Amino acid sequence: MIKNLIFDFGKVLVDYDYMLVLDQVFSTHGQSVDFYNHLMAEGWNKRLDREDKPFEAIIDDMAEAMPQYVDEIHKFGKRYTEFVIGEIDGMRSLLERLKQEGYRLFGLTNWCSKVHVTMKQYPIFELLEGRLVSSEEHLIKPERAIYERMCEKFALKPEECVFADDRMDNIEAARAYGMRGIVFRDARQYEADLRRILDIESRVGRAVDNFMQGYGCCQSVVAAFADMYGLDDNLAKRIGAGFGGGVGRMRMMCGAVSGIVTCVGLDCGQTDGADRDGKSACYKVVQDLLAKSKEQNGSLICAEILGLKGVEKAQSSYVASARTAEYYKKRPCAAKVESAARIFADYLEDKLFAEECAADDSKTVYR
User: Fold this and answer.
1) How far apart are alpha carbons 355 and 358 in whole angstroms?
2) Among residues 18, 166, 306, 343, which is most buried (max CB within 10 A)?
3) How many CB atoms lie within 10 A of CB 357?
């Protein structure tokens, strides 16, 4: 379950424009661009964000390295906070709504120690329960350690977090650590992507609820996702009904695993009999997701998952088990349904992230 929403600062909560100030500091726009290129290409911005030494000392180092701009660099240091030009449209009201919905809000930013000036200027930062600033930890995104430190500092579980950042590499690193991630472009796009993630996440719990209400493993998984593909709930449950108990209670392929296969078909199954490439693509997804299921659960076979052997395995009756408290206590099936739904949900979230990657515009700024 998603409980925590984490936000980058620059280009997510507040906007900034280096050139707005640089063009006032340097004599020509060409000099502004030249300095900016040095700032980025030579890693000065990263040094400022990490602050292994005080901000002013790094500015002095920068001036020594670029003697042609000594005066301008010191002006740049003194006017550093003037780059921020305002809150991102729509984000304060969105954060207020998300907070009212019960989500915990946090900040995670690459920023020098001057960030505290900016935080005092804009009310949006008051909505954050906590924040982690790179210059205070001497760590910067996309280093894994900064995400680890974020979770450690605020006692967060990465799988319960969604991180928003305008840079793809920072989001990729957050996802590698176990968080969900959204590449931020604007408030409307962020909320749309967040709602899609939350909807997908809710379906994992829905699958388990289905099982606890008496539905079979396959029914439970398929019915949790069916409406995404325009499939009626009753029809979804009919489609999945025969796969319960390892296909008609014959203890062959696990019903939850069959649920994954059925959902993959709904999502990317080909509808043209001559579409060999489409068929192959669908098979690849099936194989990839079932490999994850086998890794998590040890087997794809119902009898093996339940530990059935010999006569017990061979003489499995068609009569469905009574769903008693003892049944739910002994059987691992609810956990297998949750595993299957989670595997398919992760697949859908990976597709969403791939769409974000395709839509992402390359950024010329670092933070």
Assistant:
1) 5
2) 343
3) 12
